[in-house]
Design a protein that fits this description.
mainly alpha, 19 helices, globular
């Protein structure tokens, strides 16, 4: 058991996190300047906002996916989550940063959502809808400015409140006495998971699905939920591999926990494939013009190459590799697959967003911004994450379950 005099200093993160902070901030500033220049010039401004939406959804997904996994860990109490709990909490604490980074999307609404902000006269349905709501409400329809921003405020408020209590109660476990706060965590995690599922489903309808207003999909939100869970779990595998070269993670991370993380990756990969194929099968079988257009745009004119790549490299190859027990138990090999799946998550989002603006897939210099802007956001995100991670021990040392975990891994300190 951990003695009462400990302050958890023996479980503080290694100095490598300071290096990560400095380098991430440098990368964020460098690519941020490039992105800002693109936003200033009229010729690249439109592409900047499209790329920004892509990057924002990638890093918001990792943040929210971390919150969901953290709540799942509190609900299940599994040892698999103890070794990455503080990493998850550090990622969740990036939510205020993501709320701040949502402001450019509001500024770029005319460039992203012109289809329903200013509907073409040929699209009678959208014109009539806009006219009705503008007449009766004086400001906007369901998709228009006030509703769009108002709902975003509600989404972020709910997420930040959940994150606040998860981190606040966890911080209490850095000071004596030893206590079991699991019932308290479960009381917020249970409704929190439900709220997360509802809010992110509506959020992706507002922010992504509305890029093509006539199209709807009831399983759309679930595809994004699973994608966020997968990307968050993959990032945790990458982070734990980096930290495993240093104390205290070197003694805390065992093959069994790595194996559990690999099994979670396999679960999310299969769920992503299941939901994605279900959406394709149902819409293709229905063959309704208002729905099938989503896939005819993405399965022809060059976009089919990315669709095939997603089938093979987002599902097929990872699925086969993750079937191996030995592969899942080796952190040195699993980290490479986790890194690859993070990249494929980026490709998946690219496939969902870019075809709304470009009929054919052909090389455009503007696509370089699809790399530069997400890297800029990621640089700032990692800097913020590293700062959060350095502020606490890697274990909530006065959590009763943490002490059980220490005994389990043979790392208890006298």
């Amino acid at each position: 058991m951990i003695p009462a005099r400990t302050n958890g200093s023996e479980f503080m993160v290694p100095e490598i996190t300071q290096t990560i902070y400095q380098r991430s901030l440098g990368v964020g500033l460098l690519f941020g300047v490039v992105s800002l220049i693109a936003a200033i010039f009229p010729d690249t401004r439109v592409q900047f906002f499209r790329s920004y939406l892509l990057g924002f959804m990638l890093w918001l997904g990792i943040t929210l996916g971390s919150m969901a996994i953290l709540m799942i860990q509190h609900m299940t109490g599994g040892k698999w989550g103890m070794v990455i709990r503080r990493q998850l909490e550090a990622a969740v604490k990036c939510l205020p940063l993501m709320a701040l980074l949502f402001i450019p999307i509001i500024a770029g609404m005319p460039y992203l959502y012109g289809t329903w902000l200013h509907p073409d006269a040929k699209n009678k349905h959208l014109v009539d809808l806009s006219h009705v709501y503008l007449t009766h409400h004086g400001t906007a329809n369901f998709l228009f400015l006030n509703g769009y921003i108002g709902r975003a405020v509600v989404y972020f408020a709910i997420w930040i409140i959940i994150a606040f209590f998860l981190n606040k109660w966890s911080e209490e476990q850095d000071s004596p006495p030893v206590q079991n706060l699991s019932p308290r965590f479960r009381r917020i995690a249970a409704p929190g998971l439900i709220l997360y599922a509802f809010t992110i489903s509506f959020a992706v309808m507002d922010w992504i699905m509305s890029l093509s207003p006539p199209w709807i999909s009831t399983i759309y939100g679930f595809i994004f939920i699973v994608g966020e869970l997968l990307s968050a779990m993959c990032l945790m595998v990458v982070i734990e591999r980096i930290l495993s070269n240093y104390a205290p993670t070197a003694s805390l991370l065992k093959a069994k926990e790595v194996h559990d993380h690999g099994k979670l990756m396999l679960t999310f990969v299969m769920l992503w494939a299941y939901f994605s194929f279900s959406q394709l099968l149902i819409i293709w079988a229905g063959n309704l013009p208002s729905e099938i257009n989503f896939f005819t745009r993405r399965l022809y004119s060059g976009w089919q190459a990315i669709a095939l790549a997603l089938v093979v490299f987002h599902f097929g190859v990872p699925f086969l590799l993750l079937l191996s027990r030995q592969f899942k138990r080796d952190a040195k090999t699993l980290v490479w697959l986790a890194s690859w799946l993070l990249f494929m998550r980026f490709v998946d989002l690219f496939w969902y967003i870019e075809p709304n603006f470009n009929q054919t897939l052909a090389f455009r210099w503007g696509y370089l911004l699809d790399l530069a802007v997400p890297i800029a956001i990621g640089g700032f995100w990692f800097a913020f994450f590293s700062r959060n991670l350095r502020s606490r021990p890697l274990l909530p040392v006065y959590d009763m379950h943490a002490q059980e975990f220490l005994e389990y891994v043979g790392a208890a300190h006298e």
